[in-house]
Design goal:
alpha+beta; about 70 residues
């Protein structure tokens, strides 16, 4: 990540217009939704056995030791 020019949002939030605040919040919410839609499949992760099915059974990642559970 690179540092971007500008000022922190916390320093200008109070003087930001309601329309700009609304656009900012919607954009951050869209980024968060996109991240949560991704299915993480890494070492030790939990994920659905059948992601496109109604089955909500969780499956452990390949490197998890069952002795820990």
């Amino acid at each position: 990540m690179d540092r971007m020019e500008g000022i922190p949002l916390s320093q200008c939030w109070e003087t930001t217009s309601l329309g700009a605040k609304s656009r900012i919040v919607k954009q951050v919410a869209a980024y968060a939704a996109a991240v949560f839609k991704r299915q993480f499949r890494g070492i030790g992760s939990l994920y659905l056995s059948e992601p496109n099915n109604l089955d909500t059974t969780l499956r452990l990642g390949e490197m998890v030791l069952m002795a820990l559970f």
